[in-house]
């Protein structure tokens, strides 16, 4: 089920995953169907929970340009606490394929179809209620660049604004700072330099940072937009506008006249890590930022892990500027603190390695040695039960197959495949219909028509070989 025009044997992992998309997709579909009968993964060891820290995982939907280039979904939410990542791999002979499935358990998981209000109700609303009752609460977004952290944070802010301002006589003192390495600036006041100072009593103060009062949800969202527009960004291979900094928003709940109350909520959008292929296009300064980001993530993980121990261990908050800023809120000595970590994951096979890293690092914030349930599925391509026939394909499978033709020359036409354009439908199409799919390009239409014929011929060859083996086996 590969493109007959490309005879290369040595493919990197990411290219192999898209080149053999149809095979891997069918195997993943079979795995998902098996979960209802097979309880080995569904009964994976549950995530460790603590009184004050919960870890959630959210999968973002695929983006249109990802569908066009032949990506597909490699993450399954087996139940409301278990997320499985299907790592699609090739054996050393570059012919035989298999899938390593890594199942992780969290407080709760959300698939790509779960709307933000549902995620907010589970992960963030309890923190808002805790802050309204006078406590300290921290909600942090963690994950790779382009996995949906900032999108999730904006969604949370929209809903928490409604919840807070629905309470009588409430307002919010809003402060937003950006942290790059050890450099901290005020995002609402001309990026003024902020000093991270520790008082004699051990409290952390952000000197030269100022709050602004929001008396309505609209005012709060305007302040947030002002802050994010002043944030340091840079184009990467993942995002045209990718943040290379930590964004920390402080929401102190006050009365409408600005008099402070006890409760405060901190929203933290952690800088996304660059992938190795992104780093080839960055300079020395960007490499240093990546190192600083990873060191801050490590320091945060060490502090949260120490907090989650019973009894809590020594909390090394002085190891980074990020953990120093969060000290008053994550482990307040005067108020009860609650924390939620939301790890966001990209579903596409190109990001598999980074997704696996993000999930394990998020779990290590509350577990020193998280249990991961791993299973392996060998793929036998010439078995009809493993690789579905072209005539059984739905439109999504046809879309995923197009980029494998002529080294991706037809990938841009994937969005032209409508829901009625199934594999069975394409088998009945005259040449003119293939030309139409290719925006009137007759040459490309012929390529597509020939690819369908070649695919069917390959299926017949595999079926004939299977029948011959069966006859030989019976003769013996």
From TrEMBL:
Q: What sequence ranges are listed for the domain Kinesin motor?
A: 52-368
Predominant location: cytoplasm
Quote the subcellular location field of this record.
Answer: Cytoplasm, Cytoskeleton
Q: Which residues bind ATP?
A: 143-150
Q: Name one GO molecular function term.
A: microtubule binding
Q: Which InterPro entries match?
A: Kinesin-like_fam, Kinesin_motor_dom, Kinesin_motor_dom_sf, P-loop_NTPase
The organism sits in which domain of life? Answer: Eukaryota
An annotated GO cellular component: microtubule
State a single Pfam family of this protein.
Answer: Kinesin
| Cross-referenced PROSITE patterns | KINESIN_MOTOR_2 (PS50067)
Keywords attached to this entry: ATP-binding, Cytoplasm, Cytoskeleton, Microtubule, Motor protein, Nucleotide-binding
Report the family membership: Belongs to the TRAFAC class myosin-kinesin ATPase superfamily. Kinesin family.
Q: What is this protein called?
A: Kinesin motor domain-containing protein
Tell me which species this is from. Answer: Saprolegnia diclina (strain VS20)
